[in-house]
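Hi X.,

You mentioned you wanted examples for the new student's onboarding notes, showing what a folding record looks like when two proteins sit in one file. Here is a clean example. The first protein comes first, with its sequence line followed by its structure tokens.
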Amino acid sequence: MINLSFSKFLVLILVLVLISCQNDDENYEPLVAEENEELSGGETTSFDFSQNAFGFQAPNLDEENGLFFFTGNSLFNQNWVTAPASTTARDGLGPLFNARSCSGCHFKDGRGRAPEYDDEKSTGLLFRLSVPGTDLYGGNLPDPNYGGQFQDDVIQTVVVEGNIRITYEPLVVTYADGSTVSLQKPDYYFTDLNYGAMASNVQVSPRIANQMIGLGLLDAVPESTILSYADENDSDGDGVSGKPNYVYDIASGTKKLGRFGWKCNQPNLRQQIAGAFSGDLGITSSLFPDENCPPGVDCASLANGGSPEINDENLDKVTLYSATLAVPARRDFDESNILEGKQIFERINCIACHIPKMQTGSYNIPALENQTIRPYTDLLLHDMGEGLADHTPDFDATGTEWRTPPLWGIGLIETVNGHTNLLHDGRARNVEEAILWHGGEATNSKEAFMELSSNDRIKLIDFINSL
């Protein structure tokens, strides 16, 4: 015979379990996306996710600036040629250069990569050269023979500086669950040097060309907003200490907050563009009027494309074009696995550097003003550890510090550019490898990522690729 008191006890337990489950169901709140979370660039957001996803003008651009955008697009994408030429608006290439057009490094306005074989040209990876010390403005001192940037291409009448060779050594990382990932650590060699040896204390900094989207929006973020993220002395004790870089602004002749370049070494988009014309194409401007001239070469005797080779009007049009490229919208932003990945991203404190949302202020292009944007950057310097160090200071940046790169558009790089290589030199072959290279201030977040289950790691990576 069944004990009645025991039967009543079982019934009571069952009732309590059912009530508990009912209460859990009532209290459950599903994860939901924020309002307008898909609008990464605010009103400048594009919804075309094709191979041209990075190449559209901001949809809210006015008609006049839309015409300037078209002209800037032409100057950005067409090859520059050796002077003298009938195309006087696009002559003056070299004498030393890395690419013949801006799009040679930023193909389809996208991201460059490391060369896939020795002597491959114009892939979007360049090398800054310097020796210890600073110039009158606080910038780096160039290598005596090869200048501030190694150029591996030349016009016909000049001898090339040399070639670059890259090898990779494997580095195995083991997760807490025992699974492994093999990273690749690059080693760089300069070969066939034609202008003597580099300095014995030369500092070499590899820099990859980033996608061009949203640059004007970042230029329009108020300085006070960026500085509000800084915590140079880590006063909150989270191990993260974002630091501003103050760099020389040529137009004003003063030091200003840096926000562009891998080490925040350019104060505004116009100077960033002019610097790329000078270093990458050998095109002079009012900001950078001097040719890159190798020792022993009489550059004054060579034909040039004028003084300067790109005038202020055309420089401004390329700057406007670069400023107003639309930011692609988020994909799958309201899917449950993406929302769970976003929650993990926040929980392991990736948002300490990759700030999800900010507001632009006043700007000289009305379409970019007062926009709520989601770039996932703080535009500050962070110590990323010895593994990613280039040992090259840059104004206030040290040899282990890098700018937090914006993450918007990261999931479309493969669609646009046919690869998924990331970090400042392209060594990471995907998002997972990029996370595993994090060190320094990002060590705690990386280790938390390595403790996650395989399923949660996938959710986090899927979230990042939705940006």
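Then the second protein repeats the pattern, sequence line and then tokens:
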Amino acid sequence: MPYRLSAFADEISTDIQVQMDHLLDNGVKFCAMRGANGKNVMEFEDFQVAIMKPQFINRGIRFSCIGSPIGKIKITDPLEPEVERLKKAIKLAKGFETKVIRVFSFYIPAGEEPGKHRTEVLQRMKTLADVAKAEGANLLVENEKGLYGDVADRHLEVLEHIAAPHVRGCFDFSNFVQCDEDPLAAWGKLKKHIVDIHVKDCRRADRKECPAGQGDGKVREILKDAFSSGWAGYLTLEPHLSASGQFQGFTGGALFKTAVDALKGVLAEVGAK
């Protein structure tokens, strides 16, 4: 089966010219727009979008999604500002000619049982989904440690509660390792909902990110199953090989090539082309 490569290009550089150079040098034709020129995508003004978009488009790079941080707030924080941010993200998505916005399922206060906040999380996620539907946008819900949906069962619960074709899932190998989950078992539960796989592997022993196939994310097994079953979403590189943070990671140009080469090696092994 063919595959489509995307990347969070701000992991390469803040400079969009450098971003584009490295994307194209490595055969990556899609960008998950999370940041550029030292700004998070949510800080972009209209004139900046108007300047940046044609530069990417003219070099043959399209946008797979807006990598927003929406939902990366505590479940106890007010929702209204997040709804307004989603409306801005939808406007940004239209500006970059994509319909997809990545979102998250809210942080649970440390030490508290996630189930305590189940009703509130599900209501909030449904609200975000309704706003997106009204504007003709699609949401991509990501798993990450500390969120309500950080483990497969709760991630699945969020997606099945919304139960709408414009809301799908993102699968991150490393984040499941960080949560002490078996990524392959998580994939089995979630795969029918997944349209974007974030390519970031992780070693369980030291919780350090590493190139695809070199950690405990079961990247080979999952990609083999995905492509043998006809999966046709995006493979979005988010390597975090130099630095890993709550809101952004960094890899740099040289290690980005290492990350892409490692992924392509795994894809060749599993028969994806």
